[in-house]
Write a structure and sequence with these properties.
- By secondary structure, the chain is an alpha/beta fold.
- The chain has 12 helices and 8 strands.
- The protein has helices at 44-50, 77-91, 103-114, 136-143, 145-148, 153-165, 174-181, 186-198, 203-209, 232-241, 257-260, 262-274; strands at residues 8-12, 15-22, 30-33, 56-60, 97-101, 121-125, 219-224, 246-250.
- It has an 8-stranded mixed beta sheet, sandwiched between helices.
- Helix 4 (136-143) packs across helix 8.
- It is globular and about 50 Å long.
- The mean pLDDT is 95.
- InterPro entries: AB_hydrolase_1, AB_hydrolase_fold, Carboxylesterase_BioH, Epox_hydrolase-like.
Length: 277
């Protein structure tokens, strides 16, 4: 299994955040945002490739991965966008290049449009950005989170494995699937899994959806051609709403483009980021 450890800690308004940086200072810094129910681990291959030419910042959002998980914790989109703004200040990054996947896409858009976070450029990878979002399963769990929290551990593990597996089109390697599922196991992990779904409110994207025309920075929208979670048409619609945005479908990839087509995604991102120098 590929080693992936976050060695730094930041105390945010939503709990302790684990983060790290790769590469050497000098080039334009790049910040990577993960989605749900994932962590920075999904960016490991892309991050290491980008670190050859950039200083790359990775982090696990509160309630995810190696970061703090606690009862009553606010892990909503609203909270995460504030935490991201706090982190940018902590890192001293005035205008980084930002690459965001899934839920992280909404976090980056909210931070930019509502909290004044400034980016040199923005790359969105299968982001949660346009209503309606959330699969029937996601909505079912959100409406009955307290019931699902009480599942026996073995049933919970099976549910999470099946759910995470569905994010990939060709299928995930067993070791990768194990690593993606592991943070959601045990008493803390199981409660955290249902907590983040229960707090996933579409109102948080409704607040900014009408403002995507205000995004005035270079923007790339990448999308897994075979995404079963958010259809390709949503990516085309989003790119059309952002002035000058370029849309790039990734063949053979599902929602987890980083796992399904890491070389193709890295190539698209590297070319886009080079253009911003």
């Amino acid at each position: 299994m590929s080693a992936w450890q976050l060695s730094e800690t930041f105390r945010s308004t939503s709990g302790e955040v684990r983060w790290d940086r790769l590469g050497q200072p000098g080039g334009h810094p790049v910040v990577l945002l993960h989605g749900t129910p994932f962590s920075s681990y999904v960016w490991r291959a892309v991050a290491r490739a980008l670190a050859r030419h950039h200083e790359v910042f990775v982090w696990d959002m509160p309630g995810y991965g190696a970061s703090e998980k606690s009862a009553g914790q606010d892990v909503s989109l609203a909270a995460q966008s504030k935490v991201f703004t706090e982190l940018l200040a902590h890192w001293g990054l005035a205008e980084p290049l930002v690459v965001a996947h899934d839920f992280g896409g909404a976090v980056s858009l909210r931070a930019h449009l509502l909290h004044g976070a400034r980016y040199r450029a923005l790359a969105l990878v299968d982001p949660v950005a346009l209503a309606p979002w959330g699969s029937p399963f996601f909505r079912l769990v959100g409406e009955h989170a307290q019931v699902f929290e009480q599942l026996p551990p073995a049933l919970h593990r099976a549910l999470v494995r099946e759910y995470v597996s569905s994010a990939s089109s060709p299928g995930l390697r067993p070791d990768v699937l194990d690593r993606l599922v592991e943070p959601w196991l045990g008493d803390l992990g199981q409660a955290a899994f249902y907590r983040q779904i229960a707090q996933a409110d579409q109102l948080h994207t409704d607040e900014v959806q009408g403002r995507y025309g205000e995004v005035a920075i270079p923007t790339l929208v990448c999308w897994g051609h075979d995404d079963a979670w958010i259809p390709l048409a949503k990516g085309e619609e989003l790119a059309a709403r952002i002035p000058g945005a370029r849309f790039e479908p990734i063949a053979g990839a599902g929602h987890l483009v980083q796992e399904d087509s890491p070389v193709e995604l890295t190539s698209a991102l590297s070319a886009f980021l080079r253009q911003q120098n």
